[in-house]
Structures are given as C-alpha cells and as structure tokens.
Write a structure and sequence with these properties.
Blueprint: H1 7-17, E1 25-27, E2 34-38, E3 41-51, H2 58-61, H3 63-80, E4 84-95, H4 100-117, E5 121-129, E6 134-142, E7 159-163, H5 173-176, H6 181-190, E8 193-198, H7 203-214, E9 217-221, H8 229-238, H9 242-248, E10 255-259, H10 264-273, E11 278-285, E12 289-292, E13 298-300
Parallel strand pairs: 4-5, 9-12
Antiparallel strand pairs: 1-2, 2-3, 3-6, 4-6, 7-10, 7-11, 8-10, 9-11, 12-13
Helix pairs in contact: 3-4, 3-6, 6-10, 8-9
The structure holds magnesium ion.
Magnesium ion binds next to helix 3 and strand 8.
Length: about 325
Amino acid sequence: MAAEKGELALIDWIRRNQTLRSSRVSIGLGDDLAGLRLDGQELLFGCDQVLDTVHFKLSECGARAAGRKALARNLSDVAAMAAEPLAALASVALPNDMPAEEARQIVRGMWDLAEQFNFPVIGGDVGSWGGALVINVSILARAAGVGPVLRSGAKPGDVIMVTGELGGAILGKHLSFVPLVKEARVLAEAVKVQAMIDVSDGLAVDLRHITAESGCGARIIAERIPISEAAKELARKCGDTALAHSLSDGEDYELLFTVAAADADRAAKVLRSAGTQASRIGEITEAKVVLVGKDGREQELPAGGYEHFTGPNRPG
Ligand SMILES: [Mg+2]
C-alpha cells in the first residue's frame, strides 16, 4: 500500500519512527520551534524555507522581498512562542542565471528585518543550480523570561483569540507582514497564554494544530472572525465567500492563542496598547472542532487550509 502523502502524514511518520532521542530535547516535533536544554538554559530552534512560485513569485516581487519573507516567516514562529530572536542562518539555492546584484538583494531583504528586530544573520550556505530560487532560514531564539508558549496548553473553557484580520494574504500581506514578535512578548508578559500558534496555514488548519496538541476541541463563532478587506476582495473575484477565505487562506502570520476567560479582556487591552487588535472568536471545548454559522447552526469546521505536499503547488 502506498504511504499516505502529505506534510502532516510525513511529520506523523517521523514522530512514530525516529529512534534517536536526547534528554536535552525540551520541545520536540509538533510546535513552532523546537527546544534544547543546555546547561540549564533553554534554546529554541526553527527552520523554514521559501520556494520561488510556491511562497513568492520572484519575477513579480523581486529578490529583496523574497529574502525578507524567508526571515519573516521564521520570526513569526518565534512570535508564536512569545520568544526573543537571537540569530539566524540562511542557505540559498540560487538559479544559475541569477545576476550578482539580485543575490545581494536577497541578503539585503534579510538584513532589513534583522536590523528591525536587532539580531544578526551569522552564517549560512550558498549554492546554485538549474532550478528556481530556494531560501532556507534557521532561527535561534530564547524564552528570555516569558514562555515559551506551546501549542499544547489549551484547556476547555479557554477563550480563543486571534490578532488582526484574516484572509486574502496572497494579495500582498504575505510579503509585507511584520512578524508579531514584540506583540507576543507584551501579551505573554501580561497574561498566561495557554497555547499559541502563528496563522501560517490558515485558521482552520492552525486551530487544529492547537486542539490536536492540547487534546481538546474548539467552538468558533463565524460572526466573530475578523475578516480582512483582502478576503472580501478575493471573494468578489473568486466566488468563495469571504468567510471561507478567512478560515482557509494561509500566510496572515497573525497570532492565534488561548487564555483563561478571566484573562481575555486584559489580553485584548495589552495587545491594543501594542498596536494590534485581538478578537475573541470562540472557546476551547472538550472535543470536536465546530464552527457556529450566522444562522446559529453548528457544523464541523472544514479542515480546509494549506497543507504542503498533498498535491499540486499553489502560490501562497
Ligand atoms: Mg508557525
């Protein structure tokens, strides 16, 4: 029988089959960053890549935006744990025919963001080949006093909140977003964040990462989901509803998190003071992930969203 194909199926297979383990690993597979405990200190690591035509279109956005995005995605994972970035490394697979100046622009795009968040890019690797541009960034971070906030801490009764607005990031936000590193730290300093993830694959998919890792369910209220103007614009063009876009589109890089009900007001307040709105979109339950529609009817939340490696690529 052929093995099940898909990003999640592969991760699940790795989880079940990896044999080498270390007592130093404090956070293993299944979170935004992995953790290692060394001499009493916990260091957090992650890596994330971007591929030309999948995560950006080099011919449209240019090399600087591609380099910036590669680092920004990693910083969003740092934000998802309310951690503090320390350093990054970058490997690039350059197309053989890429001009030297364009290659430099990739690095400039990374420096733009590294300067903004005050950490260095300390190394990497350069290769070239006959294929399209690939940029892989590894990030090193630490908890530095708060967190790290995991995906696995949500409890029934928690309020589910999300920052910003969702959907339609393909129209521009997927390149221009500013990772919510500072906002996440302000939040986690003010209240106990039970579980958190960045919305990279779409609300429906990323919420399921929290419920799966926490062993619980969720109840989301459709009318409370903050739908972006871009989602509405896409809905007018493509025929899907704006709600569907806000549930399923990836790459908003907003923060999806849960807090005890008593902390929800304070969470919204501190995020507002940090310049970000946060919406209460539902609550954590014992089991099942359901969406309450505008008519009040509950339905199982479609697991729609972007999962890699299941079929043909789509831009995103
Ligand atoms: Mg993430």
